[in-house]
Amino acid sequence: MLQLHGQFKDGTVQKIPFESFTFPGGEQGLRIDTTALKDADGHFTIEAALRSSSDILSLLMLTDALRQTLPAVEISLRMPYVPYARQDRVCRDGESLSIRVFAQLINTLNFRTVTVLDPHSAVTPALINNVIVTSAQNHVAKAVAAMGGDVVLVAPDMGASSRVRDIARALGLQMLQAQKTRDASSGVVTGVQVLGVVPPIPLLVVDDICDGGRTFIELALAVRRIAPQQTMGLYVSHGIFSKGLEVLSPLYRHIFTANSWLDSSTPGLTVV
To answer: What is the dihedral of CA 52, 99, 236, 161, to 10 degrees?
Structure first.
């Protein structure tokens, strides 16, 4: 999903209409309503919720269409979720380094700035030019407030440790560490271990992405084995929720996200 906004000479910011279409051979096309550009001052922002390869191609087309019309235009990109960021290293011979491929593609568009939310790892901002990273801290703070304020943040694995530790310190909260195990051949999460004492106050698990939710399911089950009545919440910056909330809601009383693939009115989901 894309939106294009332009700043105009009267100081207002307005949405610029465009239409997408598909040629008989299957190729995508895009056309901007050029009459809406007449009084623009030359600075535009593209809001990009990229959730498919088709969305990425539409971003390329929209950027090119705008520059075809206004060659000297300055464009900023707001892209909360960075596709392919989870494949930030080569694990097996013959694999592509997907985030580098995607970053190179974005860099060819020469955006003035690229604003992203809570990227998966430090590899993403290292590869994208003119990047601005927005922390999840304010979103987590809203989730904490919704749970009553007295919570302990949980890092579900070692990869989330620094992210959660920084947020916990900024919000004056305690942190609990967990560690997951994977099957070496398949990469499937096989279990989660809690590394510490589970406190008698609610827990808020914090991470960047929830796809199918296996890590969070195993973590909740591990906590329940220690403290069966423990109240738990889950915050993820990017909620793909590919298996729905049904697999998580029996284990988590609260589920929060900043950027969701599900409709914001989905029962049991709170967008913060």
So the answer is: 170
d(CA 136, CA 184): 31
In the chain, the amino acid numbered 26 is G
Where does the chain hold its CATH 3.40.50.2020 domain(s)?
Answer: 2-134, 137-271
Whether 189 and 218 have beta carbons less than 8 Å apart is answered as yes
Report the SS3 class of residue 124. Answer: helix
For the record, the structure tokens of 47 come out as 């809001």
- 38 or 55, higher pLDDT: 55
- The token duo for 257 is 């996200």
Tens digits of per-residue pLDDT, 108-162?
A: 999 999 999 999 999 999 999 999 999 999 999 999 999 999 999 999 999 899 9
Instruction: Give the pLDDT of residue 81.
Output: 97
Q: What is the mean pLDDT of the chain?
A: 92
The length of the chain, given as a count of residues: 272
CB-based contact 253:231 (threshold 8 Å)? yes
Q: What is the 3-state secondary structure (H, E, C) of 36-66?
A: HHCCEEEEEEEEECCCCHHHHHHHHHHHHHH
Which residues on adjacent β-strands are paired with residue 232?
A: 203
- pLDDT of 186 reads 57
Protein fold of 137-271: Rossmann fold (3.40.50)
Residue 6, SS3 per DSSP: strand
Residue 24 above 80 pLDDT? yes
Domain over 2-134 is classified CATH 3.40.50.2020:
yes
Nearest to 13 by CA among 24, 4, 22: 4
Q: pLDDT > 90: what percent of the chain?
A: 78
